[in-house]
Amino acid sequence: MSLRNVIIGQLLSEAVARAPDSVAMRYLGRTVTYAELDRMTDAPELPQERLVFIPTTSTERPAHEVAQSVILYLAAMKRGKIAVFGARGASVSGLPNDLSDSEAILFTSGTTGEPKAVLSTHFARVNSAAAHVKALDASSDDRFLMAIPLHHCFSLTANLVSALSVGASLSIPDDRHTRQLLECIERDHCTIFNAVPTVFSSVLARSDLASYDLSSLRTGFIGGAAYTPEFFREVDKRLGFTLIPGLGQTEGTAAYTFLPPNSPLSQRSETAGRFMEHIEGKIESNGEICIRGFCVCQVLGEPPPPDGWLHTGDLGYLDPDGCIHTVGRLDDIIIRGGENIAPAELERLIRSLFPSVTEVAVVGVPDVHFGEELLACIAPIDAMPESELRAQLARHTARFKIPRYVRFYEQLPKNSTGKILRRELIKDAKQRDA
To answer: What domain range includes position 381?
Structure first.
């Protein structure tokens, strides 16, 4: 993969030049060609200032609003503006003096703390998308399903800019509920389905899944949250396509690890892949995954690391094949009586022992004696008796890793991209115990 120094607006111009009559977007029964999309992105009146705010859309928002966000983003890219995905007035302080290559400001998910504003560049987005395209083996014949919102770095890179890079089409469902996602795949013959684990989990939970024709699906990324190898294999098998892992974050533009689609299922399901081309990657002595290179973005209000290394907060290790195995998040680590406990390890174990569990998050709550104690938050409410959970865990893990507290929910709190909000679970636990 050769790095390109072009702006995203040029990707649109190239797609128009290659095939002006090919379909760029499908939504609400309408098809928009690349030539039409080019004209539509000339129409919006943009503010005089450099920042163009693009409102985030909820799961229930109609496809028309998502399409308008795509148009507004590309209009900003063509005119040298910076897209800001968030409500006008969102905190974007700390802008650097040189904004010549700046493309967008996105906000981190804020699952464990307050969201951070991240400034990305055209160079990072274009070349990260090229890496996604290579991993997906994508071409102009592909149809990308827009299953996750545009303001998420995953969707912006792996869906919109990736499709634009090869002149593929983007299919926007009427909303992002699972019925509409499946209907969109069937209607538009989507070939690429990128999503977070909770989206795939909701799709698999549908009793009528077999009634939809999903034979057009070819491949897709899973990322954004932890999952078990068993869950990965179930998605791969039941949706009948080649699922690809990826590890990434907003501060790294999107995914920075990949595997080629012809990799064996065991490798795809059990690892996060290898570091992508043109970046450096390493594992620190404490297990933290770090990257350095073109994909690293600037966090507004924070000084850039002097050595250029982005400390991702993800924990993992490398196997002899150079593949990364993740074991959790550094900021999720629970310290109980001096013992470090990775919630992801327990969450994977609970899911593997109890297939009826659709969602699980293990968090740390204050404890006078141990400093922190483990709280397992599980959905649905009737997943299993609490006594059975403890008995099964006692057979498979150390005693100090068995959660002292267990709470059952109809569903766990999540943000708009489907990530579980751990800080809300901790806040809820404190309020109940107050």
So the answer is: 333-433
- Where residue 322 falls (left for φ over 0; alpha for ψ -120 to 50; beta otherwise) is left
pLDDT on residue 182: 98
Longest dimension (CA), the chain: 68
Q: Which residues of the chain have pLDDT under 70?
A: 58-60, 87-89, 109-114, 433-434
Split into its structural domains, the chain has a count of: 2
Q: What is the pLDDT of residue 303?
A: 87
Spell out where 284-344 has E strands: 288-293, 298-299, 310-318, 324-329, 334-336, 339-341
How is residue 388 written in tokens? 């059975």
Distance CA 152, CA 107 (A): 8
Q: Which residues make Cβ contacts (< 8 Å) with residue 417, sequence separation at least 6?
A: 109, 148, 149, 152, 154, 196, 224
CA distance 202 to 159: 20
pLDDT tens, position by position, 29-38? 999 999 999 9
Tell me the pTM.
Answer: 0.85
Within a 10 A sphere around the Cβ of 142, how many other Cβ atoms? Answer: 21
Q: Which of 328, 356, 376 represents a domain boundary (last residue)?
A: 328
Together in a domain, 120 and 223: yes
pLDDT digits (tens, 9 = 90+) for 108-154: 865 555 678 999 999 999 999 999 999 999 999 999 999 998 988 99
Q: 131 and 272 share a domain?
A: yes
User: What Cα–Cα distance (Å) separates residue 35 from each residue in 18, 19, 78?
Assistant: 10, 8, 14
What is the C-alpha to C-alpha distance for residues 41 and 72, in angstroms, rounded to an integer? 7
Radius of gyration of the chain (CA): 22
Predicted pLDDT at 135: 96
Same domain assignment for residues 356 and 224: no
The predicted structure's pLDDT at residue 347: 92
The 8-class DSSP code of residue 103 comes to E
Give domain status of residue 1, yes or no: no
Q: Look at strands 257-258 and 242-245 and give their pairing.
A: unpaired
> Where among 304, 328, 352 does a domain terminate?
328
Burial 207-242 (b: 16+ CB within 10 A, else e): eeeeeeebebbbbbbbbbbbbbbebbbbbbeebebb
Measured distance CA(227)–CA(197) in Å, rounded: 7
* Beta carbons within 8 Å of 431's beta carbon, 6+ residues apart: none
**Number of Cβ atoms within 10 Å of the Cβ of 84:** 23
Long-range contacts of 30-33 (CB under 8 A, 24+ apart): 32/67
